[in-house]
Amino acid sequence: MIRTWHISTVPDAARARADTARLAAAHGVSDMERTRLTAALSARLRQCLTRGGTWRLDLEAATEPPEDGLLRAVLTPCDGADDEGRPPWHMTVPRAVGAPTADPEAVADDPGALAEALLGADEDTALVLEKLGEQEDLVTSHREELEQTNQGVLALHAELDAAGRAQRDLLAAERKARGEAETARRRLTFLADASAVLTASLNHDEVVRRLQSLLVPEYAGSVDVWLFEGDDEDRVNAPRPAAAVVAARTGRPQYAADHPGDLPGVDDHPSSATLPAAAPLLCIPIGTRRTQQGVLILSPPTARWDADDVVMLIELTRRAGVAIDNARRFEHNRDIAETLQRALLTDLPATPGLHLAARYLPATHGLNIGGDWYDAFRQPDGSLITVIGDVTGHGLHAAVMMSQLRTALRAYAVDGGTPGQLLTRLHIFLHHLQPDLYATAVIARFHPDEPTLTWAAAGHPPPVLRTPDGRVHTLDAKPGAMLGIPLQQVIQDHTVTLTPGSTLALYTDGLVERRAQGIDPGIERLAAALGTFRSADLDADLDASADSLLHPLLSDSERDDDVCLLLCHLHTRAAEMARTPTRLAF
After folding, report:
1. Of 136, 179, 196, 456, whose CA is between 20 and 30 Å from 530?
2. Tens-digit pLDDT profile for residues 359-415
3. Cβ atoms 414, 380 nearer than 8 A
4. Using an 8 Å Cβ cutoff, are 58 and 1 in contact?
5. Which of 356, 416, 420, 348 has its CA nearest to residue 382?
6. Do 234 and 293 contact (CB within 8 A), yes or no?
7. What angle do the packed helices 10-26 and 111-199 form, to 10 degrees?
8. Burial of 331 (0-12, 13-18, 19+ CB in 10 A)
9. pLDDT for 257-312, tens place per residue?
């Protein structure tokens, strides 16, 4: 306990308040807490005086833990004071530990001392107000700093938003550029792949089919290829869309729709002159610098074309025109070579007892036409010469060279000579006539009075001989080298005995050679197939037997080379047929 006051009048309350303030200061209570204590005590004392009676105020200081460092004021009623059964008022404030414990003297009873004490107590209020002013200034300063900070944060947020928008714009631009680059790469890849597909064929109809399949559905909803087959009058009078006719006349791409296309390199054509507005058309001329092949008529895959797609379509059409022009030129040259080839192939002579059947099949792929040939003719002594050969190279040049060899062989055979001698002369002839051109050949000679076959080969696949008993022999005796090579050679003759029912097969490499297997397996297949025939079948219809022989042998062929086959069959009744009065000179 520090001190106790009994209060019943206003001066008692004033002295108690003043003493409490001085004691709190002596015990190290802070200005703020001291002012809070005295203000609360003054309000409470005013209430007590209003009620009347005597009140006891105790000011206590705690000296033992855990309450050490506290100063407690307790106000309780005394005699006759009624607080309506409420608990005593109290208030506790912290005090400095170790503060001086000497208490100041109590305020004297005279009014002067009391007034001075009260004025001194108000100094605490002044100090608190001063600190509150300082705090207010500090708060104002902090508020200004906070406002500046908020403005900075707002500015920072604005900058961040601007930076975010800029970054989003950059990302969008990057994605757009990347998408455009990817689309351009895709177009270039498509153009390169499509060009390879179009130029891989030398059939103009196949080029057209491939062009249609390449464009639908990604770059066109529908594709129509109008190729010019007739003269210029047919081009403009054909029942085609007007825009296509204009493209054929002018050689410029035309776009027909109910609205301008504004497409690069394309003229806008009024839709009233063509199909309805619901079906826009893009008509691109097909051709080369030399010739115009036709018009490519496209409908859009969606509402309209992208400008870059149109540029790509015009370039693809130009390349398609080159492919179609090359294919048509190839087909023209192939047709000429095949026509010349067939015109130069001889009609086989009819000979009693000896049946001949020949087949020539041109290549269906590539320009491998004009090199293979066969011939059969009689020599002055009655012998029958049969020959089959192959000139290196293809096309018109090979066909012309083949005709010269055929003519030279017939000229040499007039003077007689064995197959080996004839091939030797052809070798010299070809070497001097065309040093850079070579040929292979097999010559077989049949004599009516001798049951012997004489033959010679120069770099050619060996003949295959079927005997009447069904066995097949490959006549692969040492052949000569190719005709025309820079080498002096004398080609040797070989002989084999023939009996009625025997069949000799002469052929070119197109019948037996396959790229993946070589030529030997093909020769074995030919021999096996020839061995399946019966002599009676060969006697009855040698032409049908030739067709039956070709079918299984060509089933796996790519038909990229000519095929020649010459069958020479000695009838089983050859001697009887030769003795008939109608016998022709053999």
Report:
1. 456
2. 988 876 655 565 788 999 999 888 999 999 998 877 677 778 888 888 899 999 998
3. yes
4. yes
5. 416
6. no
7. 60
8. middle
9. 877 878 888 888 765 544 454 578 899 999 877 788 899 999 888 877 888 888 98
